[in-house]
Amino acid sequence: MRTLRLSLAGTLILASLGVGGGAMPSLAQTDLDTYVTGTMDCGLAGEMTVVGDASVSLKKFPGECVAEFSDPRVSGTSESDITEVCFKEAATSDACILWGATELTGPDGTWVGTWTAVHDESGGLPTWSVVQGTGAYEGWTFVSLTPDQLNAGSRTFGIVYEGPPPPWSESLPLAPAE
Q1: What is the CATH classification number for the domain harbouring 102?
Q2: Could you tell me the pLDDT band of residue 25, with boundaries at 50, 70 and 90?
Q3: Is residue 16 in a domain?
Q4: 100-123 pLDDT tens trace
Q5: Is the peptide bond between 62 and the residue preceding it cis, with omega within 30 degrees of 0?
Q6: DSSP label of 9
Q7: Residue 145 counted as domain residue
Q8: How many domains does the chain fold into?
Q9: Full residue range of the structural domain in which residue 97 is found
Q10: Are the beta carbons of 97 and 127 closer than 8 angstroms?
Q11: Alpha-carbon distance 162 to 153, whole Å?
Q12: Which long-range contacts (CB under 8 A, 24 or more apart) does 84-89 make?
């Protein structure tokens, strides 16, 4: 399929360079699988609920991100329900796992799915998500990774492609081992 797309794109480019003077329509980015880069500027969007004891804490709160990507289909505002579980260690830091549902509103539709993150040993927050398109994006999937969501300058990388999402349990990261 990718070879067919590349062949078609090459033919259209060659045809547009040929003699004839006719206007050539532009290729819409929405017709292609696309590697995407950009940023997700995120913050707290409401009140936080906290429960816990000496060994673990559970926080639930809403979050909001402004997504600015190289592909406009996945640029817009994202709202998420966030659950954070932190396990208190004897050391100076907590080990935390975060996950939630998210909805990213793009210019012609919405992306709906889940995300998860785990604090790494350097204090960063690698975050990945899988969302499916609705509206004009029906049948498309966006998979992304932000190496450190806590760093405001961290880039997000992903792929927008036509097709179903990869296997991704709704209970991640707490699915039982098999």
Answers
A1: 2.40.350.10
A2: very low
A3: no
A4: 999 999 999 999 999 999 988 788
A5: no
A6: H
A7: yes
A8: 1
A9: 33-162
A10: no
A11: 29
A12: 84/58, 84/59, 84/60, 85/56, 85/57, 85/58, 85/59, 86/52, 86/56, 86/57, 86/59, 87/55, 87/56, 88/54, 88/55, 88/56, 88/57
In whole angstroms, give the CA distance from residue 24 to residue 78: 35
| Measured distance CA(131)–CA(110) in Å, rounded | 9
H/E segment holding residue 96: strand 94-105
Instruction: Report how far residue 67's alpha carbon sits from residue 72's, in angstroms, rounded to the nearest whole number.
Output: 10
**Alpha-carbon gap, residue 116 to 129, rounded angstroms:** 6
Place of tokens 């260690």: 89
CA dist., res. 96 & res. 43, Å (int): 17
What residue spans of 18-161 are helical by DSSP H?
Answer: none
Q: How many helices (H) and strands (E) does the chain have?
A: 1, 9
Give the C-alpha separation, 28 to 150, whole Å.
Answer: 34
Measured distance CA(68)–CA(39) in Å, rounded:
5
Evaluate whether residue 59 is within a structural domain.
yes
Give the CA radius of gyration of the chain: 20
The DSSP element (H or E) to which 17 belongs, if any, is helix 2-17
Find tokens 């060994």 and name the residue.
Answer: 55
pTM of the model: 0.74
